[in-house]
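Table 4 source record.
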Amino acid sequence: ILDREGRIACVLVGRPQGLTLAERQEWDAGVADLARAFEEERVSHEQEFDRNLRGDFAAFAAGFTMGPGSKVREKVRCARIAERLLAHGQLRRLAGFASEAVAHYFPLAFLHVRDRLAALCKEDPTLKFPFGGISLYPACTFNLGPYSVCFGHTDGSNYPGFPCTVSPFGSFNPALGGHFILFDFRIYFKFPQGTTVALSSAGLRHGNTRLAPGDKRYSFTQYLSGAMIRYVSYGFRLVKGISDEERARVDAEMGEGWEAQLGRFSTWGSVLVDRKRLYDHERGRC
């Protein structure tokens, strides 16, 4: 989905292409098993999860993130549950596939964030990514349902210049409910089990349609804190200790102003060249 300037704003990634029949069946079976795992964790630990502002469903997060005025911190709540789910083979496949899709469709944004996170991990080697080297994302959320559909919202604490990914699963009919809505574009589309969507969740208002009666839906998201990227760009200093004038100067120098962030979103005409730039950069690192 392109904006009026031809930039790639949202990608309906779907699922891996070119799979054999057996591989497609394995993918579908893994997605169904993942839904069962989410349901079992929710039922077994119902009291440990808070209802959230995005919808009436249980959820918790894992990985490391950062809020405005705070330091980088790891999500430690529900750590044992997170450990079990993060080890699930299908979730690892979904996470890695989504991360690779973002590199494919948003190569300059991927390159920028990869370098920022590398600098952060050099500063603090104790930080652990939820999926190790499988996915670039430092944080993720488990939406355990049983009715994981979101109200219209933007995720204002996420980094606008880098897409988040969303992947749903469960026993629901995607033709009857759980559609993905992009309010700014005034469109919605079916969002089947085991597929992925990538979009700037901080920049685009999004949500879901309600489910059909009796359906259950779960989802998994990967994201990146905007405060954390600023923290790295400002020389590992918190925003609250920096004047507005210095922030404007550093944003311009480090490519963190809104124009620079938007400029790293490829257009449909530039994406092939941008992919080669990422590829050449990665080859140079090897």
